[in-house]
Amino acid sequence: MKKLVAAIFFVAIVIIVWLLNTSLLVTPPSGTAKILAHRGIHQVYGLDGVENDTCTAERIERPRHAYIENTIASMRAAIDSGAEVIELDVHLTPDRQFAVFHDWTLDCRTNGTGVTEQTPMSKLKTLDIGYGYTADGGKTFPFRGRGQGQMPTLTEVFTALPHGRFLINFKSERREEGATLAVLLRAHPEWRKLVFGVYGGAAPTQETLRLVPGLKGYDKHSTLACLGRYAAYGWTGIVPDACHDTLIVVPGNYARFLWGWPARFAARMAAAGSEIILLGPYGGGDFTSGIDNADDLALVPPNFSGYVWTNRAETIGPLLGRRLAASSDQTNRN
C-alpha cells in the first residue's frame, strides 16, 4: 500500500509540474522573431580553438562580402538585411570618446599597436582597421587599405543611423564607461531610444543600468543568476528577481531544458518585463555563437518573438523572413 501511495503521489507531482510548464496550455507572446546582428555584417571565422588572445582576423573564412565589423557601413548593411538590433563594441579613449572596435589591442586587425582604450581617438582615426585580415595564412590581405580611417565613434554611429537600435558591449571593467554613456544619453535624449541595451563588463554595465532609468542589460554574473535560479525553482511558475526587467541570453542548445520552453517561458519573461535573446549552440567560452545557417534555424521555435543573435545577418535575415512567410501562408490555407 505504501508503494502504491508513493507511486500515486509521484505521478501527481509529475502531472502538476507538466501542467505548470507545458507550452500547450499557453498563448505565446505576440510578434515574430527579430534579428540581432553581432558586430553588424562582418567577416566570420571558426570558433574552434579561439581563446581571449586569439587573433581572429588571421583566421577568417574566405570573404563573401566586403564589410568589416563594427563599421557604419556594416551596420547599415545589417539593417538592410532585416536586423532590428546591431551589437557593437566600445572602448572609452583618453580623449573621452567611445571608439567602436572589438579588440582590446590594435595589433591584430590594424596597422597600429597598443591598447585600444589607451589610444586617443585622433590616433585611432588614422588606422587601417582592415589591415590584418587574411583567409589564407597571410598570403593575401584582401581588406588592406579598405578600412583606412573607418573606426567610428559611438556618436558617429548614432548620428549616421538615427533609426537604428544598438546593443552596446563594454569591453572593459571601468565603471566610468557606464557613467560616461549615461552622461552622453542625458546630453542627447534623442539617442536614448537608439540604445536597446548594454552588456559586457559588469562594472560599466551595472553603472549604466543604475543611471539610465528603464534601460535593460546583462553581464555574466546576472545571466548566471537568472538562469541558475530559474533552473532551480522556475518549474513553480515563480520568476526569480534576477530575471525581471532585463535581457536574458539563452544558448540554443540548452533552451529546451528551461522550464516551460518555449511559449510558457517566453510568456513568463514577457510578464516580468524581460526580452529574450536566443544564441547559437554554447560550447564554452563567451556568448558569441550565433544562429548562423539554415540548420541553426531549427533552434528557433516557430512562434518565437524574441531576438535571434546571428553572425550572418545577411544570410539569416532572408532565411527567417522566408520561414515566417511560409508559416503565414500555411496558417492562411488552414
Automatic annotation (TrEMBL):
InterPro entries per record: GP_PDE_dom, PLC-like_Pdiesterase_TIM-brl
Domain GP-PDE: 54-171
Coiled coil stretches, renumbered: none
UniProt xrefs under PROSITE patterns: GP_PDE
SUPFAM superfamilies associated with the record: PLC-like phosphodiesterases
Superkingdom of source: Bacteria
Protein name, UniProt field: Glycerophosphodiester phosphodiesterase family protein
Lineage, opening ranks: Bacteria, Pseudomonadati, Pseudomonadota, Alphaproteobacteria, Hyphomicrobiales
